[in-house]
Amino acid sequence: MLRTARTGETAATYQLGEHFFHWVAADPDRSALQSRAMAEVTAGLRAGMFDGYALPDGDVVADIGGADGSVLLTLLAQHPGRRGIVFDLPGIVPTAEARIRESGLADTVVTSGGDFFAEVPEADIYVLAYILHDWDDVSALRILGSIAATAKPGARLLIVEGIVPEGDVAHLTKMVDLTMLAVNTGGERTAAEYRDLLSAGGFTLDRIVDTPSPFSIIEATLRP
């Protein structure tokens, strides 16, 4: 942390010799471990997050950077009749496939491997759950750009993230912000920062849905 604060160099990159996600993706066992770890860490925090939440209209829901698929599977279990895609790096996909089979939703949910900086599958609704906080604004705009290049105008975007409150108050996002500083190039954002980021990426922020968890659901629409 001290080196990062002094130099601006991401601590994990300095220690590992490459970006954290590249280091994880280089080894199948690390990829599987990372997916399971993130699912376990966030499972308790997101308990009840989607209770009473109604998905926007749209038949196909794509979870971009969906890891083991747990977020998408939770959403689709509450919205039968929708179809889903879990999209992540090829090394992560097998973990998602196993989780999908266990859930009994293999007939309606498929997986797709790729790089969300390059392209994403076509869908009506896109989910970015705990993704954008990993990346600086330039990188986050590349992700939004991949979605905008594939989706049709009017496509909906759901961003699941913690939102930094205004003012000097204690909040989980501020601790996570330090983690992002050390591990990736990203950080937590305020509501205003998400609005500006989305606008720059071609999206209109529609509303922010508070949940019983520390996370919020940011709904946005791709502009024509």
Structure, described:
Helix 5 links the parallel strand 1 (60-64) and strand 2 (83-88). The protein contains nine helices and seven strands. The model has no long low-confidence stretch (mean pLDDT 91). The chain has 224 residues and is an alpha/beta fold. 41% of the residues lie in helices and 19% in strands. It has a seven-stranded mixed sheet with strand order 3-2-1-4-5-7-6, with helices on both faces. The protein is globular and about 50 Å long.
What average pLDDT do the residues reach? 91
Number of strands: 7
Low-confidence stretches: none
- Share in helix: 40-55%
Rough outline: globular
Summarize the main sheet: 7 strands, mixed
Report Rg. 17 Å
User: What portion of the residues fall into strands of 2 or more residues?
Assistant: 15-25%
Given helix and strand content, the structural type is alpha/beta
User: In DSSP terms, counting alpha (H) and pi (I) runs of 4 or more, how many helices?
Assistant: 9
Q: Provide the spatial order of strands within the biggest beta sheet.
A: 3-2-1-4-5-7-6
Strand-and-helix sequence, N→C?
HHHHEHEHEEHEHHEE
Head-to-tail CA distance between termini: 42 Å
How does the SSE layout of this entry go?
Blueprint: H1 2-7, H2 11-16, H3 20-25, H4 28-45, E1 60-64, H5 70-77, E2 83-88, H6 93-103, E3 109-113, E4 125-129, H7 137-150, E5 156-161, H8 172-183, H9 191-200, E6 203-210, E7 216-222
Parallel strand pairs: 1-2, 1-4, 2-3, 4-5
Antiparallel strand pairs: 5-7, 6-7
